Amino acid sequence: MATNASGGLLGTLMQELPLEFLNEITNGFSDDRKISEGAFGTVYKEQTRINTINVVGAKGYMAPEYLYSGEISPQCDIYSLGVLILEITTREKNCINDKDMAARNFIIDIRETWTDGHIASKYSSLDADCLQQVKACIEIAFKCVDVAQRSRPSIVDVVDRLYGRRAG
């Protein structure tokens, strides 16, 4: 599931979508065609980041730089993807509240709790290779949710690591 989500994000972030095509598939960006918020990295052609004063989005999945200063970049999507990978891999739900909209407490709890021993006890039916894959997914997710946006991996790196094409 994490590879499907990151693969879809890779497709979105890596291709240039002509405005005419976006207008066509969204019916002129009509609200009745809207399926979610976020993933705004490719809409702003020739800009790698922008700032907004109207911060909106799914609580618990927003990157700190977007949440606190309104800075939008593809790295915001990487942050959100990291939170999703943590939820999928650990089977724990990010407890969303107005005081932790960047999921920092959730991330800290996972980092403290999900040791090698905890992973082995939670997934006791898995063999050593599968346990290593679970650990790798968690490590990738932690890189994605780094507070320093420049330290986050690119979507290509995330997909390559999830598919085992690149070491973490």
Descriptive overview:
This protein is mainly α and 168 residues long. It has one domain (2-154): Transferase(Phosphotransferase), domain 1 (Orthogonal Bundle), CATH 1.10.510. The chain has helices at residues 2-14, 19-25, 64-69, 74-90, 104-113, 116-122, 128-144, 155-162; strands at residues 50-51, 71-72. The protein is globular, with a radius of gyration of 17 Å. The relative contact order is 0.15. The model is unreliable at 12-17 and 39-46 (pLDDT under 50). GO terms for molecular function: ATP binding; protein kinase activity.
What is the count of structural domains?
Answer: 1
Query: Helix share of residues?
Result: 40-55%
Estimate what percentage of residues fall within beta strands: under 5%
Helix tally? Answer: 8
Q: What fold name stands as the CATH topology?
A: Transferase(Phosphotransferase), domain 1
- Give average pLDDT, whole number: 76
Q: Element order, helices and strands?
A: HHEHEHHHHH
The name of the CATH architecture is Orthogonal Bundle
Strand order of the largest sheet: 1-2
Rg over CA atoms, rounded to whole Å, is 17 Å
Structural class: mainly alpha
Q: In total, how many beta strands?
A: 2
Taking the sheet with the most strands, its summary is:
2 strands, antiparallel
Global shape: globular
The CATH class is identified as: Mainly Alpha
- Taking the alpha carbons of the first and last residues, their distance comes to 19 Å
